[in-house]
Write a structure and sequence with these properties.
This protein is α/β, with parallel strands linked by helices and 394 residues long. It has three domains: 66 residues, no CATH class; 189 residues, Vaccinia Virus protein VP39 (Rossmann fold), CATH 3.40.50.150; 114 residues. Helix content is 31%, strand content 26%. The strands form two sheets. It has a nine-stranded mixed β-sheet with strand order 3-2-1-4-5-7-6-8-9, with helices on both faces. Strands 11-12-10-13-16-15-14 form a seven-stranded mixed β-sheet. Strand 8 and strand 9 form a beta hairpin.
Length: 394
């Protein structure tokens, strides 16, 4: 039975007054509500503080109960969950690793019936309570082992969703799907007895090639970034699918969403190379994670500076999924040129395929951070070390 004493109105007002306050300092104070454990109240404050920006809908809703702060840290943000919901459709979806239930909340806007499976009974009860506060009526919560739940429900689902735990028994980070819980590769045949479509969420640490090797019937891989920080990989599997794999890169920004799609391992995409022209393009983090560097050059008809530099250039300005700069000067990386143009100056420094670190460059040439000048230390197609001095357009 879920303890609802934390929902006492005075305790909830206390929690709201202390959002963002240091938990370490609060812990030293006397508990003003002795009938409720102080650690439970502190946990609500800490977890709700973390939810403020990540889960604004939960944060603004009254009488939400929060699990541990780790559960909040590991859950999808509302923005990435909203994107995820655009992938699925139909009448039914079962989530085998429900967690705090953010993904399912957004799935419920697109799918008629959702089953939320969570092995932790306390967390399952919390999620069921929160769905009532959020006004959700088409999600049922099932506590216990998800494979047993899948078997007991005994039905076909339009989608199965899985977010396997990315830690092993020793609490160390793991990088292979077979080392996660549940072991998705081992269970795929069983899952496909209950559905035609599976959506798997993994951490961005997982290598795409490794994931493709471990899984089967992969149709699409979605690389989702939030404010240029890759948050998750989404693996879309369809029973019996054997065709080419589409890579979709998504970078969700405050005022827009950048996208770029291509076919994985398409040998027909050959890049062009050239010296720096008027404009410089730096792909966003989702594109960088995709590895589709030749595809970027071919699709946008822009030139690469060098095979391993992953910077692009053009004479005419184009729309691009990443940062865009106008090149003001291109100088060789030499003592004379550095003293003349950059030593003791203020600039934003980036390195791409360059033997020195940003920290060493700043220290060596006494370059202060910031300002409106952007310098790219890189290598051109003749393997010469160069510096591109730019102003930012986008």
């Amino acid at each position: 039975m879920l303890d609802l004493s934390i929902l006492n109105s005075e305790i909830q007002e206390f929690i709201d007054r202390n959002i963002g306050v240091s938990i370490t300092n609060l812990a030293l104070r006397k508990n003003p509500f002795p009938k409720v454990e102080w650690i439970s109240i502190l946990n609500q404050i800490e977890a709700k503080s973390k939810a403020k920006d990540k889960l604004p809908h939960w944060f603004k809703t009254k009488n939400i109960i929060y699990p541990s702060k780790i559960s909040i840290e590991q859950t999808s943000s509302e923005k990435t969950a909203l994107y995820k919901s655009t992938i699925v459709s139909g009448s039914s979806l079962v989530d085998l690793t429900g967690g705090f239930g953010v993904d399912d909340y957004y799935f419920s806007k697109r799918v008629t019936i959702i089953a939320h499976c969570e092995i932790n009974p306390e967390l399952s009860a919390i999620v069921a309570h929160n769905y009532k506060q959020l006004g959700v009526t088409n999600i049922t919560c099932h506590a216990g082992d998800s494979l047993n739940t899948l078997q007991s429900l005994n039905q076909k689902w339009d989608w199965i969703y899985i977010d396997p735990s990315r830690r092993n028994d020793d609490k160390g980070k793991v990088f292979m799907l077979k080392d996660c819980l549940p072991n998705v590769p081992n269970n795929l045949d069983n899952y496909f007895k209950n559905t035609e479509a599976i959506l798997i969420k993994t951490a961005p640490l997982l290598d795409i090639s490794a994931g493709v090797l471990e899984l089967k019937n992969v149709k699409t891989v979605h690389i989702v970034a939030l404010e240029n920080d890759v948050k998750e990989l989404l693996w879309e599997l369809h029973k019996g699918y054997q065709g080419s794999i589409k890579i979709k890169t998504i970078n969700i920004l405050k005022d827009k969403t950048e996208t770029f799609d291509f076919i994985w391992n398409d040998d027909s995409q050959t890049p062009n190379y050239s010296a720096p022209q008027r404009y410089l393009y730096e792909p966003n983090s989702a594109v960088m994670k995709s590895g589709g560097f030749d595809e970027v050059s071919a699709y946008f008809a822009i030139n690469k500076l060098q095979k391993h530099s992953h910077l692009y250039t053009s004479t005419n300005l184009i729309s691009f999924p990443g940062r865009i700069f106008e090149i003001q000067n291109c100088i060789p990386y030499s003592k004379h040129e550095m003293k003349l143009f950059l030593q003791n100056k203020k600039a934003n420094v980036t390195t791409r395929n360059f033997p020195e670190t940003v920290e060493n460059i700043r220290k060596k040439w006494k370059i202060k951070d910031g300002g409106n000048v952007y310098c790219f230390f890189t290598t051109d197609d003749n393997n010469n070390k160069i510096v591109l001095i730019c102003t930012k357009i986008q």
